[in-house]
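> forwarded from #structure-qc
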């Protein structure tokens, strides 16, 4: 497999996951404090919405890369 085929498959998978789930969340550590033996950390939960047009565009570009990558042999 060449790089265009791998990138095409990755874009199709990412676009499909974007359509199915619509968003993803992650936790980031924002503040940390140490007061003697006691430690405090503040974690923020962030949610990122994936637009449908971006997911469909990723699937379309992935399909084009698969077609172009397959024809260059």
């Amino acid at each position: 497999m060449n790089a265009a085929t791998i990138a095409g498959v990755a874009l199709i998978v990412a676009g499909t996951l974007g359509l199915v789930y619509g968003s993803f969340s992650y936790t980031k550590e924002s503040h940390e404090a140490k007061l003697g033996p006691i430690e405090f950390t503040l974690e923020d939960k962030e949610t990122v919405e994936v637009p449908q047009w971006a997911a469909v565009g990723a699937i379309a570009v992935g399909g084009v890369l698969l077609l172009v990558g397959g024809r260059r042999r």
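QC bot note: The longest helix spans residues 52-71. Strands lie at 23-35, 38-49.
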